[in-house]
Amino acid sequence: MDFLRYAEQSAALLNAEIPDVEALVDHLAGREWLHEQCSDRDCMLLRKFQRELRPVFEAGQQGDVQGVVDGLNELMVRHPITPRIAHHDHQELHLHVATKSASVAELLVGESLLGLATLVCDLGPTRLGVCSASPCTHVFVDTSPNQSRRYCSDRCSSRANVAAYRARQKAVDKVVPA
């Protein structure tokens, strides 16, 4: 299991709009083997999980270590995870969330929680954040070496930097008489 990938997928899941099965299938691009199993119930369960998970990222953004830990622990009680050691395709041993008879929603929730729990233990709970660009509310996982990420994407970063530049230019124009 690549815990960073699972943690980043949890942020992508939280940022996704999943009103119906078609949207869920779109979200699962690259995981075609799951497409046929997607159901309306999965969509409903994932929307509920999104509401449950968001406070964990908000706590991380605020530097609330206890809030992140308590939030993840509570979610792991509500959504038990069954990891299994996998050895396939001649790869090294790694962890997967057990999928035998698990729904798509259960699989995605399990991967999210296992990835986030591992990330929080290895890199710290303040690696979870909410985009600083207004009006964006997307979340992200900060894997930068110096823990300096503030935006969910390059697009939001650029938009915020351009807005700040324009604000500085406007302030300079007001100070210097024409």
UniProtKB/TrEMBL annotation:
Name of the featured protein: Zinc finger CGNR domain-containing protein
Kindly give the Pfam families that the UniProt entry links to this protein. ABATE, zf-CGNR
| InterPro entries xref list | ABATE, ABATE_dom_sf, Znf_CGNR
Organism expressing this protein natively? Nocardioides panaciterrulae
Domain (Zinc finger CGNR): residue spans on this chain = 127-169
